[in-house]
Amino acid sequence: MLNGGLTTLEQVTEQLRQVDGVMIGRAAYENPYLLAEVDRRFFGSSAPPPNRHQVVRALLPYLEERLRAGTPLQCMTRPILGLFQGIPGARAWRRVLSERAWRHGAGVEVVEAALERVAETDRAPQIAGATPGHDAGSTTRA
Questions:
Q1: Does 15 score more than 70 pLDDT?
Q2: Are 6 and 12 in contact (CB under 8 A)?
């Protein structure tokens, strides 16, 4: 088992030739979208990975549930600050979450407002070490 230092799925593939498993911590925390291609790459899934916007929209019901249970929004948004890393609009995404999520009564509308700062793309996402043929495509909304 290898623990740490891996930052791309290419590195994971290389290491899995030598060890039984790997753990990805800091890289996934800094860039959670790194994990989007894992099911296809390592477990044979044929489903395309969701784009970043789809990931956030799928997360909203969970956020609402946890907010009702008393979990502060900032505790749930900290791990997704890096979701749009390397994408135009990422800085605005982080800024909205960082400035508003800690406020008393902050709800999913903060995440939705942050999401509006990053344009959605119809093209498949670029993922470090992803399957060839995926390309980036996201621009900041005007």
A1: yes
A2: yes
User: Could you tell me the pTM of the whole model?
Assistant: 0.77
pLDDT in tens, 22-80: 988 888 888 899 899 999 999 999 999 999 999 999 999 999 999 999 999 999 999 99
Task: Determine the number of helices (DSSP H) and then strands (DSSP E) in the chain.
Answer: 7, 2
User: Residue 38 has which token pair?
Assistant: 């894992």
> CA 92 to CA 117: how far, in whole Å?
6
Residues 6+ apart with CB under 8 A from 47: 39, 40
For 90, other C-beta atoms within 10 Å of its C-beta total 19
Phi, psi of 92 (to 5 degrees): -65, -40
What tens digit of pLDDT does each residue of 85-101 get? 889 999 999 999 999 99
Report angle CA 33, 138, 77 to the nearest 5 degrees. 45
